[in-house]
Amino acid sequence: MTIEKAIFWLAVMAISLNSCSKEPKPPAERPAKRESRTPAEDTTSQGARPAAETAQSDEHRGVKTEIRNVMFRLNDKAAVHLELVSGEIWPTGKNQMPVFDDKTSFELRVTNGKISIAPEALADILNEYVFAPSDAPLKDISVSIEEGQLHIKGKLRSKGDLPFETAGTVSATADGRLRVRTEKVKAMHVPVKGVMGLFGIELAKVLNTSKTAGIETDKNDLVVELETLLPPPHLKGKIKNARIEGNRVVTFFGDGGESIPAPKEPANYMALQGNELRFGKLTMLGVDLTVLDMDPGDPLDWYQDQYQRQLAAGYSKITANFGLRSYVKDYSKLPHQRAAKRTEVENRNSLRP
Questions:
Q1: How many domains does the chain have?
Q2: pLDDT of res. 47
Q3: The dihedral sign for the CA sequence 196, 202, 203, 207
Q4: Residue 288 belongs to what domain range?
């Protein structure tokens, strides 16, 4: 072997040894493959919505509500007439949704409509709810409407059960409450307006309403907040106008319902739409519930405390979109109510001479 060939092979061997002594270079790093996530794991999916969206949904939990021609009972005897109401039913306190079986779990927020109450029903609420506590300033209230004025009679507890009588008109305050403007005041059947003026005494000083929620005094007027005056479920909204029509005190919200379209067919109903609602053993998501009167010839007589019996006396239908239409019997027309009414009339007749 020549010297030139030996040198050549020595060079090849050196290059080979040098290559084997080096560690192999790792392949270029690839971008990590994005793992597929289920909707519950993906924070941008519907299962775990962004915080802003969640906060927004939590803030809006109202169930859209439209009510027509419903006598909504506040107790066994007294009712307010929801002639036309548009608004929302909202859960109260820590409740996540309105629960029909608990009337303190929701309130009716009225944006538009017309609501009225008869004087007899108003007197019953004043006696059984507003002035029921033993330390209330008034008792034995009676209410009537005479010649377009609201007459209120009763007794002043703080004055030794002194009989009194007031007469006045109704209107709305600038902040959306009901004002009873007192025009006449009598005590022991004697006009006392002059006596009050003589001694500088106003109604606010005679009638201490500090312990009576929902009623304030403004000189010789009474200012009433329906939200706290009426028992639950509470009615919330700003009154735009109020007046006496026939034998009823009428309050108007918004434009009084003039902008609410009339239904295709005359009916007495309560229609509820959207969000969540629980009634009985059922929880409805995406609420689509309408309660209709089986006898539309007169207002729907609805009693929240006894609504299960009204449902049981009627029937229900499911719509093509899984909405629920419940046809109910008026509370006063339930079998036991008719029997009780008949007994009441018979007892009354037996007392007549």
A1: 2
A2: 40
A3: negative
A4: 58-115+255-338
